[in-house]
Amino acid sequence: MTVYAVFFYIIAALIIASAGLAITRKHMVHAVLYLVVSFIATALLFYLLGAPLVGIFQVILYAGAIMVLFLFIVMMIRMAPGADRPFPAAHYLAAFGVCGVYIAAALLVAFFSGPEAGRPMAAAAASPAAFGFYLFDQHWLAVEMVSILLLVALIGALHLGRAGRRKQSGNKEP
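and the corresponding structure tokens:
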């Protein structure tokens, strides 16, 4: 086993652990912070696999911009702290069921894949400028749709934050 394989498995375990902690936390700020750790570890994994541009995009877009947006949403909603009770058993049963389906699908693909599955894929390389030209030339509509979706999500978060504030103060402001 090479050093890269050891790093790969350590980073993969960190991603799985931090994503699991992000899902199971009751306190929303802690969940967002664990998700940031998961995103940064995913960026490290991209870098390790030879895609530093994708790793940088992961840090800038997900761990940076989107997580800041999530933190603003959590702060604006002002959720009341709940009791630190564990999740009901039905939630764990559903989560383990979904995990079982994914593991079974992965095992089926691993065991019943053809002989060409063992060959490594050819590496694809593109400069950041070529990637940017391709993205905004061929997929400009999708980029614009994502930006509008993020704008609508921000407006929705502002609306939810104002509705919570109105409910707490008892005012009927428009």
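(Above: one complete record from the training split.) The mean pLDDT is 79.
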